[in-house]
Amino acid sequence: MTINEQQSQAFKEFERTGWGKQAEHYDSLVGEMTRQAVDGLLAAANARSGIKLLDVASGPGYVAAEAARRKLDVVGTDIAENMVAEARRRFAGVQFEIADAENLHYPDSSFDAVTCAFGMLHFPRPGVVFFVRVDALRSASGADPPRP
């Protein structure tokens, strides 16, 4: 299903507002489920000390915080300002930024790995987000990753 820009913006506002209201309650609602996914997600991303990781739709920051604990250079992003505030409150010292996953401001090839725990279902156009994230990656050889 294709949606137009107006529908996309309305969907994003719905998500931003809804999750903004749930930020302080996220942990009690679904925090345990999210925490259970962190190790597998970081393993799938081949996350290891020294790499630069972008965590998209970071929510209250569980993935980014664990990546930082493992000595990765990490940036967590979320569209909901209150979620970013909650992540910063919970995990001081980890970098979190307000960002729209479809319009990341990082130059192409800025990161070695990108994670997104449960965010894809919260994006109005997940395919757009996927390619924005691919652009943010750099390959191990230093060359840009291939695009279809």
Protein model, in words:
Helices cover 45% and strands 11% of the residues. The protein has helices spanning 5-22, 26-44, 62-69, 81-90, 126-136; strands at 52-55, 73-78, 95-98, 113-115. It has one domain (5-136): Rossmann fold (3-Layer(aba) Sandwich), CATH 3.40.50.150. Mean pLDDT is 81; it is low at 143-148. It starts with a helix and ends in a 12-residue tail after the last helix. It has 5 helices and 4 strands. With 148 residues, it is an alpha/beta fold.
Structure keywords:
alpha/beta, 148 residues, four-stranded parallel beta sheet
Structural class: alpha/beta
Count of alpha and pi helical runs:
5
Give the class-level CATH name: Alpha Beta
Helix content: 40-55%
Q: What name goes with the CATH superfamily?
A: Vaccinia Virus protein VP39
How many angstroms does the end-to-end distance come to? 20 Å
Shape: globular
Helix-strand blueprint:
Layout (H helix, E strand, L loop, with lengths): L4 H18 L3 H19 L7 E4 L6 H8 L3 E6 L2 H10 L4 E4 L14 E3 L10 H11 L12
Parallel strand pairs: 1-2, 1-4, 2-3
Helix pairs in contact: 2-3
Quick summary:
The chain has 148 residues and is of the alpha/beta class. Helix content is 45%, strand content 11%.
